[in-house]
């Protein structure tokens, strides 16, 4: 799994669909992105809080591969970094192929442990009608395929900026494929 690059970083202190780009964001170990609405030890995603506000936050950082933006553009959807709610937009790493427990080294200090796939909801069609069909589909066997990025928890904090390197460290086998978190 080769190395990649951080294309953009984004955050929002409010539960908005899109997050504005920033020059840099600070990841806080065990919490997430400083100043982001999803930062915290326990789950912050509103639908998850309604189910059980005490469950651990496995969705501290949301990452999307810029290659998805390219794919969406080819299908007629213009989507920029941060507009799908991601904190970190990368290029050059096949995020969706990573196993649970993979470590992403972002910049000089920050490390994010991959926990699973983002499960996009109908809100995405409110942003761009028809977009949900582009990021959720089925494979030849009828299994659901989610392409709207991955989620992770912050293992080591640090500042992440556009242009930073993304390193990948795989966990020891057997590798567990990502599922929604």
UniProtKB/TrEMBL annotation:
Signal peptide: none annotated. Residues 20-169 form the MOSC domain. One of its GO terms (molecular function) is molybdenum ion binding. Pfam families: MOSC. PANTHER family: METAL-SULFUR CLUSTER BIOSYNTHESIS PROTEINS YUAD-RELATED, MOSC DOMAIN-CONTAINING PROTEIN. This is Molybdenum cofactor biosynthesis protein.
């Amino acid at each position: 799994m080769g190395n990649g690059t951080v294309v953009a970083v984004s955050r929002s202190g409010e539960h908005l669909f899109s997050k504005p780009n920033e020059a840099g964001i600070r990841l806080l170990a065990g919490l997430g992105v400083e100043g982001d609405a999803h930062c915290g030890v326990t789950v912050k995603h509103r639908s998850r809080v309604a189910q059980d506000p005490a469950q651990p936050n496995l969705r501290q950082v949301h990452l999307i591969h810029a290659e998805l933006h390219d794919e969406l553009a080819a299908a007629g959807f213009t989507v920029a970094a941060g507009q799908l709610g991601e904190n970190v937009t990368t290029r050059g790493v096949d995020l969706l192929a990573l196993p649970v427990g993979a470590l992403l080294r972002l910049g000089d200090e920050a490390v994010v442990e991959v926990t699973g796939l983002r499960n996009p909801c109908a809100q995405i069609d409110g942003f761009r009608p028809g977009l949900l069909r582009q990021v959720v589909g089925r494979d030849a066997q009828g299994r659901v395929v989610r392409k709207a990025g991955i989620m992770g928890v912050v293992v080591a904090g640090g500042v992440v900026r556009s242009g930073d390197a993304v390193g990948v460290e795989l966990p020891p086998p057997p590798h567990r494929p990502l599922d929604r978190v």
